[in-house]
Amino acid sequence: MSRRQMHLAAHFPGVNNTTVWSEPESGSQIEFSSFAHMARTAERAKFDFMFLAEGLRLREQNGAIYDLDVVGRPDNATILAAVAAVTEKLGLAATISSTFNEPYEVARRLASIDHLSGGRAAWNVVTSWDKFTGENFRRGGYLAQGDRYLRATQFLDTVMTLLDSWRGDEIVADKATGEFLRDADAGRFDVHVDQFDIRGRFSVPRSPQGRPVVLQAGDSDEGREFAAASADAIFTRHGSLEAGQAFYADVKRRLAAYGRTEDQLKILPATTFALGDTQAEAEERGRQIRRQQVSGQTALRFLEQVWNRDLSHLDPDGPLPDIDPLVVDGDTPRVSQGRAADRMYRDPLATAREWRERAAANNLSIRDLMTEVTSRQSFVGTPSSVAEQMERFVEQRASDGFILVPHITPTGLDEFADKVVPILQERGSFRADYTGSTLRDHLGLAPLDARASV
């Protein structure tokens, strides 16, 4: 039986609590050797791309630097330009905000990486959402959700206009004379929309892909619509098979309104994994990893993000607090700055009620509950059973593949590459080797015609 081909990508962790810092093999998240190691592992396993998240400000909680994230990370585009030099086929995906950047700068960075890598660049478009982050930038402030997506849409369109301003044949050498023939309109752009009023000449000739692959991370209705209109892949957090199928169906049905087919947008949920020689061993290892990822301190930090109170006095192995969350308003600031709690839990009072009911029904402590509610999709089992679980998601239209988030940096992907990937290859659900050189090739996306895109 012919199997659907799975797409696999690697997420370099650090901007959340995924990484188990206490493990002896946990390494640096700033030194280039860490990025190079994970990239080489992903390429050895024939992954589509490596993905870097980004934080534009060090996050804070209760007035102090949030100590569950890596403190600082170099610029994504700079890292991936360096990774391009130590890899040959692996796609390179950078998260870049449309709120606190300008189209010309982003287009130039992406086109440069695409040139340096031979056509492997990808852009994860995000809409930075909070005033706290905005304080790091000249214009400060923040944009309401509708305005963020308006800016993101016009930002993306403007970047593509700049990239398309070079068709690819503007400068041609005349073999007879040795002179170069130049097109006077090469690189010219003129954009006048609500968010941008720019005109000039783009400085980077057309790159191997023409345009980078566009990723979108967002589960909101606005995020789904943005992805359906413009993205090549969407990064989601839906974990169960049923939730994944519902998300998959909802996003894919939106594509027709934009003249797109289902194969033009790949749906890739984030996932973790725990392997063992037996199912029991894998399950025990999975429990141990989750307990390390959600320590007592971490559990209280997560709870504070919803309760909007300092809860450091509570016992993480005890019950949820009797008091209700403080609702953020003009007089009540948020204890967590730069975190996404207000997007994920837009009604903290309703979330508190739901969590109390869940904790009471299952006799869960604060730490137990936070371990459950912060869990990503996890595949737990022997290498063979994990391969089968992943295939089930793809075959039953819950995803087109996965973005793997290992719990150890930078070696956490090695075990999956060595033990699970060969089984997927043997079963015919994942490539045995790259069949093209660009990221668009890896994702099965149609090549762009330079002349058709202008």
From TrEMBL:
Flavoprotein found in the keyword field: yes
Source superkingdom: Bacteria
EC class of the enzyme, as a word: oxidoreductase
Keywords, comma-separated and alphabetical: Flavoprotein, FMN, Monooxygenase, Oxidoreductase
One Gene Ontology MF term: monooxygenase activity
CDD domains reported in the protein's UniProt record: Nitrilotriacetate_monoxgenase (cd01095)
UniProt KW Transport keyword: no
Catalytic activity, EC: 1.14.-.-
Coiled coil: none
Luciferase-like domain residues: 26-397
PANTHER family, alphabetized: ALKANESULFONATE MONOOXYGENASE-RELATED, C2H2 FINGER DOMAIN TRANSCRIPTION FACTOR (EUROFUNG)-RELATED
Record family assignment: Belongs to the NtaA/SnaA/DszA monooxygenase family.
Name used for this protein in its record: NtaA/DmoA family FMN-dependent monooxygenase
Protein species of origin: Pseudonocardia benzenivorans
